[in-house]
Fold this protein.
Amino acid sequence: DFIVTRKNPLDDLTALRQLELVVCRGRAVHKPAPKRNKTVDALLDPYLA
């Protein structure tokens, strides 16, 4: 399993918000659109800044 992002998440963790590709159990999902949880996003924002 792996993900692909346009930018390097090691340089900027906010890159994890814009996924280009997700491969899970051998299945590829291009341009995934996961559901967002505003509460979780707000809690994670301080770590992504």
User: Anything to note?
Assistant: Helices lie at 38-48. The two ends are 26 Å apart (CA to CA). DSSP finds one helix and three strands in the chain. The first helix runs from residue 38 to 48.
